[in-house]
User: What shape does this take?
Amino acid sequence: MRELLTAATYLIVWLLCSRVIGIESGLTKLIISLGAAIAVFVLLAIKDHQDKKKGGR
Assistant: This one.
């Protein structure tokens, strides 16, 4: 599930950078999109770890 949400985040942020913000540089869009996708992945991993720790699993 995390991987799917990460991929969706990457694509959505890429499109936002292209269409809404109007960033022309591909490298800038890549860095921003990957940063957002990695942040979502890390946040979900932390939440999952805390849930497992709290639940005793």
Remarks:
- The chain has one domain: 2-50.
- The two ends are 19 Å apart (CA to CA).
- The chain has a mean pLDDT of 88.
- The CA atoms of residues 27 and 33 lie 10 Å apart.
